[in-house]
Amino acid sequence: MPPVEIKPDIYWVGVNDRTTDLFEGLWPITQEGVSYNAYLINDEKTAIVDLAKSTKGDEFLNQIDRVVDVSRLDYVIVNHMEPDHSGLLRTIRRLAPGAIILGTKRTRDMLESFYGITDNVRVVEDGDTLDLGKHTLRFYVTPFVHWPETMMTYEVDHQILFACDAFGSYGALRGAIFDDECTDLEFYEQQALRYYANIVALFSNAVLRAIDKLGSVPVSVIAPSHGLVWRKDPGRIVQLYKKWAEYATGPTEPGVTLIYGSMYGNTESMMNAVAQGISRAGVPVDIYDAAHTHASYILSSLWTQRGVMVGAPTYEGGLFPPVAQVLEIAGHKKIRGRLTARFGSYGWSGGAQREFERIVTPLQWDIVDTFEFVGAPTEDELRHGEEFGARFAELIVQKEA
Predict the structure, then answer these.
(1) Would you give the DSSP letter of residue 56?
(2) Does 399 have pLDDT greater than 80?
(3) Count of CB atoms situated within 10 Å of the CB of 18
(4) Domains parsed from the chain with CATH numbers
């Protein structure tokens, strides 16, 4: 995609990445891809806001050169030091040795640690401004959205918020960078939720603080480092992020995330009966086979839904490992205060329940029911499983009331 002018003399000069399989080396994006958004202000002084991953060097430098000779850059603004944003700093330093790098105090320290860069670095404080000529930039320090050094850059004249990782999403751009030109907005909103649950959720309090801090700042365009640029309805993505951030400590949605695993089909047979009972009660249910679905895709549901139904057999005296792994990641993301129940098969002795309780008790999950059976479920046990699911769904509804 060529550079796109957002406002006069302000350009999107980002690149798409459809070849990386794991974002942060952890979260799958093989199908969805991701964009690395950077923004160039071509004024009396020229500034670029954020960069891109080092593997996209040639493409990214070509983007800049289409607008201005890269050697003419006056300022490189580093909102965030994570290498998908800053990976080309050494290259830019070689091509534009006079360019001044701007960032927070923590950024200055990280520049030396990550890239050995100590010269031509200027620290900006919260509220500082930079005059480029016709355009003025103001800097807002927003720590832990989502690293301690992060900040946002605000273009005063056109009210553009370069928001870094805040308000971003997975999903390579499909020929359009703006929300009003996007033909599949639902896709990007879903990917924004998955991105939030994977990357930002642990820092929800910091997200809310940043939203509150910028609440009185007039914003006409939100330009994040990943995903769509929001110009028609920038309040939409702020509203979504605020709602998701509030799930960290507040009420969630009246639905059920059903996570299961099955070695030989016995627990899966019961899962179908339990899911039928949940659905019969009129409660939405998302179903994930933990052995075939990466936790990245499950976290979105776990983050937003009130109930967690776990179906897992006993495996070598413990919880079936793929299910245990998803729950451990949920614990790392501090997904707290859920209503939960567990069912599963065992062969000659139990043990899964003990490990299940060990994982979820520190998360303050309320374990309301358990149902275990030996080997393959009988017809009576399947009927019991359906009732087991219905009872759990009714508790979800009651908790909402």
Answers:
(1) G
(2) no
(3) 12
(4) 4-246 (3.60.15.10), 253-400 (3.40.50.360)
